């Protein structure tokens, strides 16, 4: 059972819990991207198990709920082998196509970027209701954006949460912010699909709104469960807003990452403990 201190950031341990949360968020105008917690599997059985869980979640989503899923490559077996990941992604997409649902592919460690893009491109050729996450802290992302600009679907931009070798990434907060703004401008100007603005930074969100007004490109704002939720609801009154909603019994490590990454989250956890 997830303790009250963690349930700000994790919807629950079961598929029923994440769907209940998605219904509540949709009532406030915010849609949900559901992510089953689990990653870095070194053997095939757990990767196949989470693949089956995603397939069942897609089947369980009611027609009245506007929700989708987001999968991690290492969760679907990319560290077991590229072919395992491609096969399991294809199995998830197969059910998504049957149910008319959208599938996001998260981006993880720098060593898996090429294999992740390869699998996304292959799957999106047959099923365009797909999206790919790219990280603006990576120097290679300018070229990766050009590569996927003609692929149907959506591209989610995030600043990047992983720790690649220093020579592969932009150094410093301002350099990453500059890259994020440049990548947004490229997508709004050149991309025919939808731009996913994965950021809690009000400056980046304002910039995205200005670019939308300039170019008319479809976009959506994506934020994490438990972070700036009041802003999510406010923005949803005018724009498409999705909340990234984790669930599952592997919640502990995810919760601690959220607590450590922002001062506000740490203060929230401290207040919860003291109360």
TrEMBL record:
SUPFAM superfamilies: FAD-linked oxidoreductase (SSF51730)
Pfam families (UniProt xref): Pro_dh
Keyword vocabulary terms for this entry: Oxidoreductase
InterPro entries the record matches: FAD-linked_oxidoreductase-like (IPR029041), Proline_DH_dom (IPR002872), Proline_oxidase (IPR015659)
GO molecular function, one term: oxidoreductase activity
Domain of life: Archaea
Residue ranges annotated for the Proline dehydrogenase domain, each copy included: 19-268
Protein name: Proline dehydrogenase family protein
Species: Halomarina rubra
């Amino acid at each position: 059972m997830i303790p009250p201190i963690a349930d700000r950031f994790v919807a629950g341990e079961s598929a029923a819990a994440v769907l209940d949360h998605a219904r509540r968020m949709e009532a406030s105008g915010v849609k949900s991207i559901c992510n089953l917690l689990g990653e870095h599997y070194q053997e095939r059985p757990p990767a196949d198990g989470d693949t089956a869980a995603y397939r069942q979640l897609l089947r369980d989503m009611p027609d009245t709920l506007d929700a989708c899923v987001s999968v991690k490559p290492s969760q679907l077996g990319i560290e077991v082998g590229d072919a395992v990941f491609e096969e399991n992604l294809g199995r998830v997409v197969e059910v998504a196509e049957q149910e008319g649902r959208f599938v996001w592919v998260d981006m993880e460690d720098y060593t898996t970027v090429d294999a992740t893009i390869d699998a996304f491109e292959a799957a999106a050729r047959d099923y365009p209701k797909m999206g790919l996450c790219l990280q603006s802290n990576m120097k290679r992302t300018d070229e990766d954006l050009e590569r996927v600009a003609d692929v149907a679907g959506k591209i989610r931009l995030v600043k990047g949460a992983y720790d690649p070798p220093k020579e592969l990434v932009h150094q410093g907060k301002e350099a990453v912010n500059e890259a994020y703004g440049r990548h947004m401008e490229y997508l709004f100007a050149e991309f025919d699909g939808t731009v996913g603005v994965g950021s809690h930074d009000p400056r980046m969100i304002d910039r995205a709104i200005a670019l939308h007004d300039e170019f008319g490109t479809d976009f959506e704002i994506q934020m994490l469960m438990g972070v700036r939720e009041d802003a999510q609801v406010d923005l949803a009154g005018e724009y498409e807003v999705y909340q990234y909603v984790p669930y599952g019994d592997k919640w502990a490590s995810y919760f601690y990452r959220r607590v450590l990454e922002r001062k506000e989250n740490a203060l929230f956890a401290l207040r919860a403990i003291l109360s």
